[in-house]
Specification:
Largest sheet: none
Shape: flat
Radius of gyration: 29 Å
Distance between the termini: 20 Å
Number of strands: 0
Number of helices: 7
Helix content: over 70%
Oligomer: single chain
Length: 200
């Protein structure tokens, strides 16, 4: 692929961005290709050494704030919003508006429920750890009065502290997984939002 072909495709893929941002990105990749050509690569080799155009565009769009994408999309004319479509939207509002509210409510509820599970796990881990510390302290204090009871409490406290430490790593891994899933879902929403009308 030639440099001009690559840059044209990149500009087309970045159509969801404001024109100034797309131009900056195209200029940046143009400079990269020129630098690699100066280092001895051919134009085709320099282009081939870069990532795929769709991969580059997808990463840049995912890193772009949602409000920028929304603002740019609203700025562009929408030929499919005709007076007939507006009338149908108004007439159909009693049907689609409650459905839309229901879908948003369900998604929000799932989001809150999943975070509640993570917070509950951390709370349980914390309470086991605090209980273990309290049992160990009471055990040390009562060793002189009742040796067997004191040793038992110290042992039980240390077991609880150990279990809490292990469970903390599991809870942290779960929280990281959840954050990763949220990021992936957010990227999917962005991709769907900026998806071209021609289905590409």
């Amino acid at each position: 692929m030639s440099k001009s072909e690559f840059l044209e495709r990149l500009a087309a893929e970045l159509g969801a961005l404001p024109q100034s941002e797309a131009e900056k990105t195209v200029a940046y990749y143009s400079e990269i290709i020129d630098d690699r050509c100066e280092d001895g690569m051919t134009e085709a080799e320099a282009v081939a050494s870069l990532e795929d155009v769709k991969t580059i565009a997808s990463r840049i769009i995912c890193d772009t704030p949602m409000q920028v994408l929304v603002k740019e999309r609203m700025r562009k004319p929408r030929p499919y919003i005709t007076p007939l479509v507006i009338v149908l939207l108004i007439i159909g509002a009693p049907v689609w508006l409650p459905l839309l509210i229901s879908v948003v409510s369900v998604v929000f509820s799932v989001f809150i429920a999943l975070w509640s599970v993570v917070v509950s796990i951390f709370a349980a881990v914390f309470s086991v750890g605090v209980s273990g510390i309290a049992a160990a302290v009471v055990g040390f204090a009562s060793v002189s009065g009742n040796f067997a009871r004191g040793i038992f409490l110290v042992g039980a406290g240390l077991v609880c502290i150990g279990l809490a430490a292990l469970a903390f790593f599991g809870a942290a891994a779960l929280a990281r997984l959840y954050v990763r899933l949220i990021r992936r879902a957010w990227r999917g929403i962005k991709r769907a939002f900026v998806k071209k009308e021609d289905g590409k």
